Amino acid sequence: MNWEEIFIALPKLLDGALLTLELVFIACLVGFVIAIPVALMRSSQNWWLRNVPLVYTFFFRGTPLLVQLFLFYYGAAQFEAVRESIFWVVLKEAYWCALIVFALNTGAYTAEIFRGAIRAVPHGEVEAGIAIGMKKHTLYRRVVLPRAIRMALPAYGNEIILMLKSSALAYTITLLDLTGVTRTIIARNYLAIEMYFTAGVIYLLMTFIFIQVWMRVEKRLLRFQ
């Protein structure tokens, strides 16, 4: 194990790790915002409203993340209408394509997690809200959604961890995230074992820190469950 080369490469790897964290944080934040209305629509009693977002969730849950990245970054550029549209300013940039795909992907999975949690809210709590005269939107805002989100925390934490690991695919569209930087360094020093080992340790540390923080969040929010 060439420790000297590892220490030389470490600052660049940490820079790549920062980009990884940035992508995952923003994607999960946007995905969470997307997931709430989608989950509510998927939980609706109205057949049309329930099935409108089904195409979205089916596509992003049913196709590999790598394929989605390639479709957005390489595929969109094949259409002249896209290149001449106002969206080309965003879609021509690898960073924004990765961010959009990651957000839509985690939003689809998170929506299904929340949908299951909404359906698992005890019926007695819903009936109690109705009994005291709550309107439907108030009932969802003050009873159903807070309870569902707390119930979904363990599964949602797993989704964020999966998103962190899946973000390694960002290098396939030229982004220099942690994996991208690792491959670039290997192309120069040919020390694949040392560089991948170091990158793996950094991913493990990021995951470990997140798990510790998330466990405290769960403990705090679930203490009255």
Succession of helices and strands: HHHHHHHHHHH
In terms of quaternary structure, the protein is single chain
Low-confidence stretches: none
Please identify which CATH superfamily we are dealing with.
MetI-like
Count of all domains = 1
Mean pLDDT: 90
Per DSSP, what share of the residues sits in E-state strands of 2 or more residues?
A: under 5%
3D architecture notes:
- The chain is mainly α and 225 residues long.
- It has one domain: MetI-like fold, CATH 1.10.3720.10.
- The protein has helices at residues 3-42, 47-51, 54-62, 65-75, 80-83, 88-91, 94-120, 123-131, 136-166, 178-189, 192-221.
- The relative contact order is 0.15.
- The mean pLDDT is 90.
- Belongs to the binding-protein-dependent transport system permease family. HisMQ subfamily.
- Keywords: Cell inner membrane, Cell membrane, Membrane, Transmembrane, Transmembrane helix, Transport.
- It is a multi-pass membrane protein.
- Pfam families: BPD_transp_1.
- InterPro entries: AA_ABC_transptr_permease_3TM (IPR010065), ArtM/GltK/GlnP/TcyL/YhdX-like (IPR043429), MetI-like (IPR000515), MetI-like_sf (IPR035906).
